[in-house]
Prior knowledge:
single chain; alpha/beta; eight-stranded mixed sheet; 15 helices; 8 strands
Amino acid sequence: MARIAVMGAGSWGTAFALVLADAGNEVCVWARREEVASAINERHENTEYLPGIALPELVTATTDPAVALADREVVVLAVPSQQLRANLTSWGPLCGDGTILVSLMKGVELGTHQRMSEVIADVTGATPDRIAVLTGPNLAREIADREPAAAVIACTDLGVAERLQKLCHTPSFRPYTNTDVVGCELGGTTKNVIGLAVGVCVGLGYGDNSKASVITRGLAETARLGAAMGADPMTFLGLAGLGDLVATCSSPLSRNRTFGEKLGQGMSVEQVTAQTRQVAEGVKSCQSVAELARLHDVEMPIVEAVARLVDGTLSPADLVREMIARETKHERH
C-alpha cells in the first residue's frame, strides 16, 4: 500500500482516486471547495462531480494542500491544464524530494507551448525519472462505474512506470507502460481538439462518414506533429493515440465532443462555457496546439480550423466546407 495524494477533486481526479483505493492504496484528495471535501469524508461520495458513486473508505479529502501532500510518495495532478503552473508553484515546496509526480492532464500551456510534464519540470525542478503521465481512453464516469478499461503510464524511466502500474492495476483497470512521454502527451492533448471538430459535425447533423473522416485525418495530424517532436509513431496507434481519440470522439460523455456539438448547433463559445460546469480542455488548448504545429512547421488543418472556430473567426459550417475544399493530395501527405 502506498500513500498517494490526488490534487484535484473533479470527475477524473475522483475516479482515479477510486482506482488507486481499489488497488489498496491510501488516497487523500485535495479539493478546492469545502463542500466537496466534506461530502467525500462524510458521505464517501463526490456529490458534485460523481453523484451516486460510493467511494472506498481509503479515500479521504481535504482543502489544505499541506495535509494532502504530507508524506506522500506519489502525487497525482488532476487540475485543469492552464491552472497547473499557478497551483504547482505553491504545491511544489510541499512535496518530498523523491516524490513521483503523475499528470492526468491533457493540454499544452498557453504562451509557453509546454506539455504538462514540461510545466511540472519547469516549476518543481523534478528530473524526468520523477515525472509520469497517465493517459488513454478513460472517461471518468465509466471508470468510476468500474467498467473494464485500459490506460498507459508513460515515464522515461521504465522502472518508475512499472511501479506506478502496480499501484493502479485493479480487476477493472488495466494499465500498460510506455517510455514515450512526448507521444503520450501529444495524443491526449490533440484528441481533445479533434473531439471538438467531431462534435461540430454531430451538431450540424452529419453522420458516421463525416465523423470517421475527421477522426482519421485528425490522427494523421497528431502523428505528423509527434514525428516532428521526436515521438514514437507506434504510440499513436495505441491507447494514448487511437484509443483515446476514439473514446473522445464517439462518446456523449466526452466534454470536448459535447462542447463541439453545441457549437455545431449554433451556440457561441461563451454560451456553451456558461452552461458547462467542467473544463473542455480542447477549447483552451486548441490555440496552443496550433501554435506548436507552426513552430515545428507541421500542417494541422483541422486543429487550425478549430482554433479559428473558438476565437470566432470561422463558423461551424465554414469549418467543414474548408476541410472539403482544401487542395487534394496523396493520403500520406
